[in-house]
Amino acid sequence: MKQLFVHCTRNVTQSSLLEDGVLTEFSVERSEGTSLVGNIYLGRVVNVLPGMQAAFVDIGLPKNAFLYVDDVLHPHLDRQPKTKPSIAELLKPGDRRIVQIMKEPLGGKGARITTHYSLPGRCLVYMPHADYVGVSKKIEQEQERARLKGLAEELREAGEGLILRTSAEGESRESLARDLEGLRNVWRHISERGAAAEAPAELHRDFGLVQRTVRDVFKPDMEALIVDDERAFRDARAYLQQTAPHLEKRVKLHAESAPLYEHFGIKSQIDRAFQRRVALRSGGYLVFDHTEALTVVDVNTGKYTGATDLEETVFQTNLEAAAEIARLLRLRDIGGIVVVDFIDMTDDEHRRRVVERIEETMRQDRTKCQVVGWTRLGLLEITRKKTRADLMSYFYETCIACKGTGRTYVR
């Protein structure tokens, strides 16, 4: 059973996805600073760096955005030149370009931008210049994949690109056409504003957290979307009325006296999940440490002593840890490089099954993940696409005294 919860206050909006009562996704957005990923701007090229094959573009944010050469070439790989040209042949200082943020400013870095525009709808993603059709890999039945691809080819105009999302499965031609036409209208509006605006200028802002959650997360297999705010309730119903009327009645307004997250036990799960040390049911535990370059996870047996032999004890702990690590990477929205120090295993079959378990759990993650493999030191390397700031920054601030080292000064 899947349920989606949206909690709103004056300063913060939170969304949580529970699967069989277990928290698997969590998102936060502060009212004073909404997410920038997906926003589209008219930018002005400030500097071109051939040595980096990149350009810096002023889009009106405090730091100039970063545009890499691959994000300037045609979005269809078959339409790109075999020999990559210099960025200086494609862009010059002062050029105006419509660009889209694909990665938020993080730390001291500016936003990563692209000219490969994509506008997500409920059933499909519209790419005005991509010239290809794709179907979500999570739609596994070949007959349905072929049906959707055929419909997309019929509906798209010359040069347009479409990706059929998981939500498109089972949808009618009329539903897809309605979604596509709405996205075409958005792109027309962006193009018209871009032609008349002075750079830098914001041309399009993606939905806020409530509407994004309804669009991207609330699927037909979910039992309910429960919100505790009248405005969010109306916004969610209005969006579904236009895009998926059959799901509108599943949106519920929380009417209990107890706060939403306390009533459904979500707050306690959030508190446990974002600790540095996370307990496993068996008695083992995980330790998460974050550095600027990567995230390190250490697996320990703790109180778990097993019932047979050491190798089996270690294997069972690692197996449980693998699934929990995949869940917590998704829940905490940890991106970039992740290195896991599992307890040493001597059996190669056990190592293989641990990787299988973590990959199996990661298939539920909407963000692209990859298990790179074991290092020579016995560590497991994982990568997860990073587009937004780590959620840990919402819960914790770096101590101004120790700068995050966490040690006590002894006189």
From TrEMBL:
GO terms for molecular function: endonuclease activity; hydrolase activity; metal ion binding; RNA binding; RNA nuclease activity. It comes from the Bacteria. It holds the Pfam family RNase_E_G. InterPro entries: NA-bd_OB-fold (IPR012340), RNA-bd_AU-1/RNase_E/G (IPR019307), RNase_E/G (IPR004659), S1_domain (IPR003029). One of its GO terms (biological process) is rRNA processing. Transmembrane segments: none annotated. One of its GO terms (cellular component) is cytoplasm. Its cofactor is Mg(2+). Keywords: Cell inner membrane, Cell membrane, Endonuclease, Hydrolase, Magnesium, Membrane, Metal-binding, Nuclease, RNA-binding. Residues 36-116 form the S1 motif domain. NCBIfam families: RNaseEG. This is Rne/Rng family ribonuclease. It comes from Cohnella rhizosphaerae. The lineage of its organism: Bacteria, Bacillati, Bacillota, Bacilli, Bacillales.
